[in-house]
């Protein structure tokens, strides 16, 4: 019974734990475990982009209708991030959401199996909707967890490193697709049979991973912990009620616009190169997409390197600006020139999503879990913008001309990048967190090395019972 009590899936958000001041060394294991999740949804997302073109070929559907895959996948995100996953996160904790999301992912993968076998596009969209709920649940918990698990000053770097493995997953999936889905023999039935085995393997893996999360002891991070961090950084984070957290809602808007543009470009990348580049079939287009996703992954590692010496908000502004600069020529250019513009666009897209998450959560304090749901809900842009691009492409009979759609959404997202760099109400909380000494080894006030037992991340000191501190009474420590 003691074994299972230590793995309790419920923790009170009113109790402060050592997780508020984890050092880099203490956070390595939970971060590595959660980073596996980033690879999983990168792989799933990469499969979706390849299947988009595959269903156009095998089922004879239009570009606009094929975007139903993206609509089902990303349309599930608000349901998870603002609904069931966020409720579990706020009432139980991060680990239960990880397990819940993995189980939904596995169920969706199993449902996809018969749908692929019977070539049912509608049924497969339903399976993708279940998978989207699972991945939306994982993102609702994993993105904020990576951001808050460890010293606050390294939050942007941590989430970009973890998201880089998401990029690795998006590279692996199109490579697999080029050899499995787009067969040179043209045997579509065999191709679909191969796809079903991929989803069966995914289901088995995620169910095993859910068990690993259950038996692993990882620190829970409560609202009280986040209130403590906000107080220690003096970011004035908790002034005003939740509905007045305007920086959060602007970040969610930027996430909606940016993610919609990113997903639209990736979803129709194969269409773009097959239409604009001579002697390029779908199989070769999938290989080019893998190369573009490789540029995306490389951009994340490069961005992390830049963030070591340059403030993350400046790196974010530069990268998003370059997305606008390079996607614009792809509208009029053709051949290798147009494709190279999209390669560069994907390279500079790399740090935008995770950095919006990290910056948008700065200073939310006790609203961190609730606020993270709104930012992740912005991923639903991926359900709205691709159908719009597909409709324009069908209307103009040109995917290249339709690239004006993601350009417009990049410009809308750019408004947040400008504000977080030049508006003091946005800029100051970000800067105060980036210089915080919380969780830095040798700094004062650290409780991370105290001798303590743990149940779901909640501290129980020997002889004192449970240490409970309300979010509004986080202790003061010596200022550095």
TrEMBL record:
Q: Which Gene3D superfamilies match?
A: MFS general substrate transporter like domains (1.20.1250.20)
The UniProt entry, under PANTHER family, shows: L-FUCOSE-PROTON SYMPORTER, PROTEIN TSGA
Subcellular localization is given as: Cell inner membrane
User: Which Pfam families does its entry note?
Assistant: MFS_1
Membrane topology of this protein: Multi-pass membrane protein
- UniProt-recorded name of the protein: MFS general substrate transporter
> What start-end ranges are recorded for coiled-coil regions in this protein?
none
Stretch list, region Disordered: 439-480
- Species of the source: Hyaloscypha variabilis (strain UAMH 11265 / GT02V1 / F) (Meliniomyces variabilis)
Q: Where are the transmembrane segments?
A: 28-48, 97-117, 164-182, 197-216, 314-332, 338-361, 373-393, 405-423
**Entry GO terms, CC:** plasma membrane
């Amino acid at each position: 019974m003691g074994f299972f009590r230590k793995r309790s899936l419920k923790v009170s958000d009113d109790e402060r734990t050592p997780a508020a001041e984890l050092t880099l060394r203490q956070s390595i294991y939970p971060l590595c475990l959660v980073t596996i999740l980033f690879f999983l949804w990168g792989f799933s997302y990469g499969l979706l982009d390849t299947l988009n073109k595959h269903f156009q070929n095998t089922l004879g559907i239009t570009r606009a209708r094929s975007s139903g895959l993206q609509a089902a996948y990303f349309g599930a995100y608000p349901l998870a991030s603002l609904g069931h996953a966020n409720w579990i996160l706020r009432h139980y904790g991060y680990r239960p959401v990880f397990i819940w999301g993995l189980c939904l992912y596995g169920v969706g993968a199993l449902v996809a199996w018969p749908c692929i076998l019977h070539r049912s596009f509608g049924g497969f969209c339903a399976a993708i909707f279940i998978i989207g709920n699972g991945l939306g649940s994982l993102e609702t918990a994993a993105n904020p967890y990576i951001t808050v698990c460890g010293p606050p000053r390294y939050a942007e770097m941590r989430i970009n490193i973890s998201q880089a493995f998401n990029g690795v997953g998006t590279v692996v999936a199109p490579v697999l697709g080029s050899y499995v889905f787009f067969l040179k023999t043209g045997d579509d039935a065999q191709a679909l049979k191969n796809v079903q085995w991929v989803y069966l393997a995914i289901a088995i893996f995620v169910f095993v991973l859910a068990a690993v999360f259950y038996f692993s002891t990882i620190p829970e991070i409560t609202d009280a912990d986040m209130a403590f961090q906000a107080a220690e950084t003096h970011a004035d984070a908790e002034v005003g009620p939740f509905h007045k957290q305007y920086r959060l809602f602007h970040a969610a808007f930027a996430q909606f616009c940016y993610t919609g543009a990113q997903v639209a470009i990736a979803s129709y990348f194969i269409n773009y190169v097959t239409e604009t580049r001579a002697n390029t079939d779908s199989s070769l287009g999938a290989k080019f997409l893998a190369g573009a996703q490789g540029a995306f992954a490389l951009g994340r590692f490069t961005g992390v390197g830049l963030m070591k010496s340059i403030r993350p908000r400046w790196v974010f502004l530069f990268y998003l600006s370059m997305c606008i600069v390079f996607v614009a020529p792809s509208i009029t250019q053709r051949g290798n020139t147009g494709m190279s513009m999209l390669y560069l666009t994907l390279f500079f897209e790399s740090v935008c999503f995770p950095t919006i998450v990290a910056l948008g959560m700065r200073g939310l304090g006790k609203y961190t879990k609730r606020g993270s749901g709104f930012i992740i809900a912005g991923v639903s842009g991926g359900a709205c913008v691709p159908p719009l691009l597909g409709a324009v492409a069908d209307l103009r009979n040109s995917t290249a001309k339709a690239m004006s759609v993601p350009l417009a959404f990049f410009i809308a997202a750019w408004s947040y990048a400008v504000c977080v760099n030049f508006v003091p109400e946005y800029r100051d909380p970000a800067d105060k967190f980036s210089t915080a000494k919380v969780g830095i080894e040798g700094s004062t006030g650290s409780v991370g090395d105290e001798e303590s037992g743990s149940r779901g991340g909640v501290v129980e000191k020997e002889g004192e019972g449970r240490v409970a501190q309300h979010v509004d009474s986080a202790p003061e420590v010596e200022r550095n």
